[in-house]
Amino acid sequence: MLQANVTVLQQNVLQLQNENSALNESYRELQFQNEELRNSNTELQSNNEQLKKNNTELQSNNEELKKNNNELYSNHSELHSRYSSLRENLTELTVRFRALDEYCPVINQLTQKRKCAVCPENWLGFSGKCYFFSNETMNWNASRNKCKSINGDLVIIETAEEQSFLIKTTKNKRGAEQQGKYWIGLTGHVTEKQFVWVDSRPLDVNSRFWAKRDQDDKFEPDNWTQNNLNGEDCVQLQVNKKYSGWYDAECNEHQKWICEAKPAGLQTEMKGNRKIQEQPTSDQEQNHRAPMKQ
Ligand SMILES: [Ca+2]
Ligand SMILES: [Ca+2]
């Protein structure tokens, strides 16, 4: 009996020993897990600190951006208002610069030196030259002599701009129904084939503005011989209802005339804001060119 109890006790002790071992094992395992959790916790705390720091930084950045945005918006408004004001200045300067070029053209491209034109009373200034439009009528020779007597000569037309200015001015001068006809400084006296300006230069083929006739849409010059067998040796600028430009005509016709002269030189800076007439626009009807009749 005693022996049997000892055996049972021994078995119990063995079992308890096994259980103790298992518990020890579990304890070690729990200690290990506990250690791991502590580490994780430390790490999470550190991450949390970092996130808090980042959040503070982002908030501060956000404030800064808001400030910058407001500043940019205010700069934009200011720039927009300055831009509008500059545009206004540009428009005004463009008008004034046109006047400057017309009355005081650049005479030296290198130094940009300008010379201002001063035209006599009743003469018009354009691009550094002075122009006189007569009200009387005379033949071509007498007209030329009149121009020479006032230190000029019949007009020599060199550019499309000059042609446009003359057309525009004669259009403004003529009555509603009246044709405008003006002698200019071009003749075909020497030979009909070669027109020559009053300064003896031949007509530049790139700068000629012969008219297209209103009645038959054909171009001048035609050296019309029906009225005079000598034909037509003198040239006039005509402003018609449809087309305007140069016509060859009989030199003995009595017509108005246009003189051109150099202005009195005055080297000065332009002062004030002189209001001037607008530059003539390029008007197609003023620029018809025809090959010369050979
Ligand atoms: Ca000229
Ligand atoms: Ca003719």
Automatic annotation (TrEMBL):
It comes from the Eukaryota. Residues 126-260 form the C-type lectin domain. One of its GO terms (molecular function) is carbohydrate binding. Residues 269-294 are annotated as: Disordered. The keyword Disulfide bond applies. PROSITE patterns: C_TYPE_LECTIN_1, C_TYPE_LECTIN_2. This is C-type lectin domain-containing protein. It comes from Erpetoichthys calabaricus (Rope fish). InterPro entries: C-type_lectin-like, C-type_lectin-like/link_sf, C-type_lectin/snaclec_domain, C-type_lectin_CS, CD209-like_CTLD, CTDL_fold. It holds the Pfam family Lectin_C. Residues 6-82 form a coiled coil. Keywords: Coiled coil, Disulfide bond, Lectin. SUPFAM superfamilies: C-type lectin-like.
